Amino acid sequence: MAASTSSLLAAASSSCAAISPRLARAAPAAASVPSPSRPSCPILRASSVSSHRSLFVASAAPTMQPPAESRVSTVVDVDLGDRSYPIYIGSGLLDEPDLLQSHVHGKRVLVVTNTTVAPLYLEKVTWALTHNNPNVSVDSVILPDGEKYKDMDTLMKVFDKAIESRLDRRCTFVALGGGVIGDMCGFAAAAFLRGVNFIQIPTTLMAQVDSSVGGKTGINHPLGKNMIGAFYQPQCVLVDTDTLNTLPDRELASGIAEVVKYGLIRDAPFFEWQEKNMSALLARDPSAVAYAIKRSCENKAEVVAQDEKESGLRATLNLGHTFGHAIETGLGYGAWLHGEAIAAGTVMAADMSHRLGWIDDSLYKRVVEILGESQASHCTSRDYDSGDVDKKVADGLLRLILLKGPLGSCVFTGDYDRKVLDETLHAFCDS
Ligand SMILES: NC(=O)c1ccc[n+]([C@@H]2O[C@H](COP(=O)([O-])OP(=O)(O)OC[C@H]3O[C@@H](n4cnc5c(N)ncnc54)[C@H](O)[C@@H]3O)[C@@H](O)[C@H]2O)c1
Q: Which intervals hold domain 3-dehydroquinate synthase N-terminal (predicted)?
């Protein structure tokens, strides 16, 4: 990576000053949610309905048909041939044992969670796994909470528990928590006995709109974020939107950075919807939150179905991440929340795109505006000096995802004027 860490990080740090928080906004009257419509992608056939009777999907995916009284309001299929799986979205899904149980393999389950989420939801999930299901036994491992524990030592605790509990290849791992737990549990499932079944139960907005979908799993290395991992798809993703009721505001705002990303890179109508409904999202309006999760999952599933292992298109999902990961690595994991770093990185990417003449003034301002609206105010630390490694360096070149053209278009490129990158970094440094 040609840019020095300190310049990247200084740039990012300054960029946050430009992203003023406005979290304490009053709740709007009601979110405007587009009426149910099928997404444009023919691969995905998700539908949103307000009644209990939901529309379900026909594809190669092992999608079960939830019963008529199910609270599942949306199913999004991730279409990956024989590794396809459904994302169930709805309120109260953890109260539906059949849904979860239908994706369990074998008689042994290991729930991987952390010290914050366990007191909130472990009992409920254990009930959902075992209700009217005496054949299944559930073990759990409760990891320390935080990005700084997304490492090899903590991962070993999962293997320790699995081996002590004498789990065999027919077991199922269940990730119960945010993106950190999902990434670690998924990686453990990929590696334990060379691969066991796993289920994602994401409980943060970040995890519900992004990290639980698509099969990227892994841990951090002190020199670089998410540097060790595997592509490993879950059996299903179960998004119970009620779990967001306990999520702190700062974490909710952090997740919105990834929602904004989908609009910017490929879904202009979704971005426009966000501009109108950001206050509703931050105020946790249930229909706004449900729509944001649904549309985000549809976008992610569509991209992953076309490019599971990130040979091209999927890289666009990393908008803001090259800068953002450098911030996280340089500042120390957990100093900024992941979404805060990504928001800052997205503003930097938009700034550079603007300097290159690839987007106009108006779009640049809209990016700053919407991320300003969504972001928290914690991005103030200047305490950085460690090195960074970013996996988006390919063949020695720093590749960036930049916005280009009208709203909803982007490029993944190493072909830009290097001076412009430096200008962006300096501009953020000096401001
Ligand atoms: N695999 C992917 O494709 C992908 C995509 C995006 C992000 N990620 C990864 O996800 C991680 C960030 O995820 P995150 O933002 O969810 O962070 P996180 O997992 O650290 O969760 C944030 C905090 O919220 C707490 N929490 C979780 N659910 C809660 C609930 N319902 N109520 C109260 N507290 C709750 C957690 O214990 C934690 O303290 C990063 O490591 C990032 O690299 C991965």
A: 141-253
> Is the CB of 154 inside a 6 Å radius of any atom of ligand 1?
no
Question: Does the structure show a pLDDT above 80 at 323?
Answer: yes
- Residue 418 buriedness (CB in 10 A; 0-12 / 13-18 / 19+): exposed
Q: Which domain holds residue 299?
A: 1-19+248-431
Q: What is the pTM of this model?
A: 0.85
Query: Which CATH number covers residue 424?
Result: 1.20.1090.10
What's the pLDDT tens digit per position in 11-28? 333 333 333 332 222 333
Residues ≥6 apart with Cβ < 8 Å to 200: 175, 182, 185, 186, 207, 212, 213, 234, 236, 237, 238
Which of 196, 213, 247 terminates a domain? The answer is: 247
Maximum mean pLDDT: which of 62-71, 196-205, 396-405: 196-205
**Cα(58) to centroid of ligand 1, in Å?**
31
| Residue 4 belongs to some domain of the structure | yes
Question: Is the CB of 66 within 6 Å of ligand 1?
Answer: no
Pocket test for ligand 1, best of 181, 204, 219 (most atoms within 8 A of CB): 204
Of the candidates 258, 298, 328, 340, the residue annotated as catalytic is: 258
**Domain closes at, from 215, 232, 247:** 247
- From the CB of 319, is ligand 1 less than 6 Å away? no
How far apart, in whole angstroms, are the C-alpha atoms of residue 159 and residue 154?
9
Q: For residue 35, what is the DSSP state?
A: P
Say which residue the tokens 């320790």 belong to: 160
Collapsed DSSP state (helix, strand, coil) of residue 185: helix
Q: Find the 206 Cα to ligand 1 centroid distance in Å.
A: 6
Q: Is residue 34 part of a domain?
A: no
